[in-house]
Amino acid sequence: MSLTPREKSRRKAKIIKELIEELDAIRAFRLFNTSRALRYISELRLEGDLWREVQIVLKTIALWPTQDKSFPRIKRADSIADILFMASFAGMIGSLILMLLNLELFLAYIFLLSTLVLMNLSYILKFYVSVKIRNIYLSRRSELEGYDGLLKKAVDNLLFRLRGELKKAGIGLSEVDFKLYNGDYAGLVVEEEKKGVYKLKFK
């Protein structure tokens, strides 16, 4: 069943709003995974010099961890964490089967305890990986700051597009609010600022 023009505009408006939030978070050093932003740009079929440049920047940012000398060690830790999680999951299923069948209860409890240890080790390694990746990005903060103007321009462009889609969808501008890490976008007014997060509305 095909969508009506109004439904299409509602869906497009939702994606545009989410892309605004993604780019704003990247600009504010709160998000470093650029894959979703790149996917949204592709879905919206955004073209022109601005969006080509934005895509180049997002792909460049995504490659930063692989360019760090510690990346092989981080990748290895991430792989070990995945293996430990799968082993703990399999062990948990095995121990539950033994318990349900009332077989080797002592062994089942040992299995269960072991799986909990493995799972915790997996979480610790995942936390280590996330901290190391974040530190890599933060070590290149000055480079990311160099893209600030471009990312702001991209968000301003998206806000203009969003206005048009909301109008097509029959949604009033007053019905839409934003929670962003920056409050300096054209066409938006800050209503509230709390702990570094701005609540904004269309002017």
Automatic annotation (TrEMBL):
<feature type="transmembrane region" description="Helical">
    <location>
        <begin position="79"/>
        <end position="100"/>
    </location>
</feature>
<keyword id="KW-1133">Transmembrane helix</keyword>
<keyword id="KW-0472">Membrane</keyword>
<feature type="transmembrane region" description="Helical">
    <location>
        <begin position="106"/>
        <end position="125"/>
    </location>
</feature>
<protein>
    <submittedName>
        <fullName>Uncharacterized protein</fullName>
    </submittedName>
</protein>
<keyword id="KW-0812">Transmembrane</keyword>
